[in-house]
């Protein structure tokens, strides 16, 4: 099976977590797109959806699904989103699609975070995937120098502006032995809006699409 088939398998399995009357948070990316398409076909009578990006909002609307403002929903029962990497403790790297900040907000507002991915994202340790960091443009060079001091090699993601009007710096070479600490340390650099480590708010459920079917893991 190709990666898309595995992503679709994981995305469709997440429908089991969606009940009528819920508000559902929806992530961003190619795996989440399969989830949105499955939602459109399933026609579950939820109260509405909170989108983690403009792209997701547009795709939900194209499926005729009701998009709500996070400011009007309060906490939400469930959030479904993909990941670039997941470790055995359900900590994640996200932001390959530059949506990490809004994703972390919606994930943090959710009581349950269901992460959907193909099994290639299941890693013994985070850190092979370059870590996305969302940075206010004014602070780009300063933040890059601080990331070097932390042991990283920063690269500006060319031609990308986030939904919040910021830039993305991708960082390789960081020490991921303590992702909780690294998430906090990077976020203390002035000019950093957020980074793609999801360790303080990690996933609660992992659904991996694999050649042997969906592998479900619960924290
Ligand atoms: O910013 C993008 C998100 O964090 C995505 O959830 C992540 O990059 C995974 O994307 P995909 O499902 O396309 O592999």
Keyphrases for this structure?
Alpha-Beta Plaits; four-stranded antiparallel beta sheet; Rossmann fold; 2 domains; 219 residues; globular
Describe this structure in words.
A hairpin with a 5-residue loop joins strand 5 (85-86) and strand 6 (92-93). Helix 1 (3-13) crosses helix 2. The strands form 3 sheets. A 7-stranded mixed sheet has the order 3-2-1-4-7-13-14. Strands 9-10-8-11 form a 4-stranded antiparallel sheet, covered by helices on one side. Strands 5-6-12 form a 3-stranded antiparallel sheet, covered by helices on one side. It has 219 residues and is an alpha/beta fold. The longest helix has 13 residues, at 30-42. It has helices at 3-13, 30-42, 54-62, 100-109, 140-149, 179-187, and strands at 23-26, 48-51, 67-68, 76-81, 85-86, 92-93, 110-118, 131-135, 153-156, 167-172, 192-195, 197-198, 205-210, 213-218. The mean pLDDT is 98. It has 2 domains: 3-123 and 200-218, 3-Layer(aba) Sandwich (Rossmann fold); 131-195, 2-Layer Sandwich (Alpha-Beta Plaits), CATH 3.30.70. Ribose-5-phosphate (R5P) binds at residues 27-32, 81-84, 94-100, 103. Pathway: Carbohydrate degradation; pentose phosphate pathway; D-ribose 5-phosphate from D-ribulose 5-phosphate (non-oxidative stage): step 1/1. Substrate binds at residues 28-31, 81-84, 94-97, 121.
């Amino acid at each position: 099976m190709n990666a898309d088939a595995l992503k679709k398998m994981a995305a469709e399995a997440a429908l089991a977590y969606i009940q009528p009357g819920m508000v559902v948070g929806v992530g961003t990316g190619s795996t989440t797109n399969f989830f949105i398409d499955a939602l459109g076909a399933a026609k579950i009578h939820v109260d509405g959806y909170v989108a983690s990006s403009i792209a997701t909002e547009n795709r939900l609307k194209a499926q005729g699904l009701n998009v709500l403002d996070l400011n009007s929903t309060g906490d939400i029962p469930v959030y479904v989103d993909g990941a670039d990497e997941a470790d055995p403790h359900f900590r994640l790297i996200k932001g390959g699609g530059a949506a990490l900040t809004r994703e972390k907000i919606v994930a943090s507002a959710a009581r349950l975070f269901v992460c959907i991915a193909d099994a290639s994202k299941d890693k013994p340790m985070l850190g092979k995937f370059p870590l996305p960091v969302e940075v206010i443009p004014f602070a780009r060079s300063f933040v890059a120098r601080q990331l070097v001091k932390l042991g990283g090699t920063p690269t500006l993601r060319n031609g990308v502006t986030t939904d919040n009007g910021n830039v993305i710096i991708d960082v390789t070479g960081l020490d991921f032995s303590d992702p909780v600490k690294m998430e906090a340390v990077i976020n203390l650099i002035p000019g950093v809006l957020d980074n793609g480590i999801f360790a303080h708010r990690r996933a609660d459920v992992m659904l991996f699409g694999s050649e042997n079917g969906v592998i479900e893991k619960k924290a």
